[in-house]
Design brief:
Blueprint lengths: L3 H34 L24 H16 L3 H15 L10 E3 L5 E3 L8 H4 L7 H20 L3 E7 L2 H4 L6 H4 L7 H9 L6 E5 H8 L17 H18 L11 E7 L5 H5 L9 E7 L6 E4 L7 E6 L7 E6 L7 H7 L2 E6 L3 E3 H7 L3 E7 L6 E4 L10 E3 L5
Parallel strand pairs: 3-4, 3-12, 9-10, 9-12, 11-13
Antiparallel strand pairs: 1-2, 5-6, 7-8, 8-10, 13-14
Length: about 400
């Protein structure tokens, strides 16, 4: 039997129950209204992919395909999706100091530094932990391919500068999470490849930039890498350029030298964040800056884009020089910031990046004075070499791989 006390207690609860029901109802309906009518402005998606579009029913495709397409469309376009993703990312980053990405593809370090760790895109942190070493057979093949490459280039009277560019965590280890830094192990792939290179000779040189950049970062008041991006900044690439030119001049003293004194160098905030911020939907929410190299004298170099069927990016450069010297570069995305500096040192240049492939057909056609191969540390062991041969079907060999 209910007493007046119980009735009064239930009466006090009723407004809260109704309010809770209304909030739940609004929370269920409002995203659908936003999805259909867009009455409120929504955040722009920062994902590096194309979101699913609304499917159109087709008898040929069938009901099952339409339902699957609509499910993908709903997942990518429901109301306030980008806002909710942004809130989730901020909670992970600011409160728990971890990445919201699956499998920790973006490692959140100290002082706002982010690090790239996509396992499907080269060996990165597995190599840092010493868990992805090359075996003896792979190293024998790498050595064989290196000797073959150097021999082919020597026959063509082409100087080779082979450059290993460091991953960011190799240079700024102090900004890694403490737990990650403690797991550092050996051996590292770059150390293994440097070991089988033997020594430089009269026409070929290998540059391991890891120790060089670690020392140089102590001399400059600016960082060498972008905090929120996979790549180095203009300063990091300029230091690499200086070392490349120093080696190239061993083989051709007519290579022009550009020094830091030729620029006004200063740090400048960027309007957007780097690629790692975009991967976790935080573009423009973490401050980023770059180091600007402003020429004191206007450049006389002309740079043009080249479209190729295989390479994602290609450029050519020309400049009037007293002594003509030609450079050809094959590299990954790290080499893109090298190109403006290299173009100042050579009368003619060709630059091909992504995917990292050395194509001997291009080498034999262009006959450069200097060939630069730039390879990021995480790709050591996966350089592609297309050996020219009498076969009608061209072959692209993954490095390491047996030579023809």
């Amino acid at each position: 039997m209910k007493t007046s006390f119980d009735k009064g207690k239930n009466g006090k609860r009723k407004p809260f129950i109704v309010a809770g029901f209304c909030i739940l109802l609004i929370a269920s309906i409002l995203p659908l209204c936003q999805m259909v009518f867009r009455p409120f402005p929504d955040l722009r998606s920062e994902e590096n992919r194309v979101l699913a579009t609304k499917p159109v029913f087709s008898r040929t495709a069938g009901t099952h395909e339409f339902i699957r397409g609509f499910e993908a469309y709903f997942d990518d376009n429901f109301g306030f999706r980008n806002l909710l993703i942004r809130i989730n990312t901020l909670i992970h980053l600011k409160i728990f100091h971890i990445s919201p990405m699956p499998l920790n593809e973006v490692v959140v370090g100290k002082s706002g530094w982010l690090f790239y760790n996509v396992k499907s895109d080269g060996s990165s942190f597995d190599d840092y932990y010493g868990l992805d070493a090359l075996d003896s057979r792979q190293l024998r093949v790498i050595k064989q391919n290196m000797e073959t490459m150097k021999g082919r280039l020597a026959d063509l009277n082409i100087a080779l500068v082979f450059v290993i560019t460091p991953t960011k965590h190799s240079i700024y280890e102090e900004y890694l999470p403490s737990g990650v830094a403690l797991m550092k192990g050996n051996p590292h792939r770059a150390d293994q490849v440097v070991g089988v290179w033997d020594t430089d000779d009269t026409r070929a040189s290998l540059i391991d930039l890891r120790a060089i950049l670690r020392e140089k970062k102590k001399e400059w008041p600016y960082p060498l890498y972008l905090k929120t991006d996979t790549h180095w900044n203009n300063l990091g690439s300029f230091i690499a350029y200086e070392e490349i030119i120093r080696r190239a001049r061993r083989y051709n003293p007519h290579v022009r030298v550009v020094s830091a004194r030729d620029f006004r160098i200063f740090e400048k905030p960027l309007s957007s964040s780097g690629d790692l911020c975009r991967m976790i939907n935080l573009d423009r929410l973490i401050d980023e800056s770059d180091v600007v190299f402003e020429p004191l004298v206007a450049s006389r170099v002309t740079v043009s884009e080249i479209r190729t069927a295989y390479y994602r990016y290609g450029w050519s450069s020309t400049a009037k020089r007293v002594r003509p010297v030609k450079v050809l570069l094959f590299g990954d995305s790290f080499s893109e910031r090298l190109i403006p500096f290299l173009a100042e040192s050579f009368s003619e240049g060709l630059y091909f990046t992504s995917p990292l492939t050395v194509d001997f057909a291009i080498i034999e056609k262009e006959r450069p004075d200097v060939l630069v191969i730039e390879m990021n540390e995480r790709y050591v062991g996966s350089l592609k070499v297309r050996w020219s041969s009498k076969q009608t079907r061209p072959e692209r060999w993954v490095f390491p791989a047996p030579v023809l």
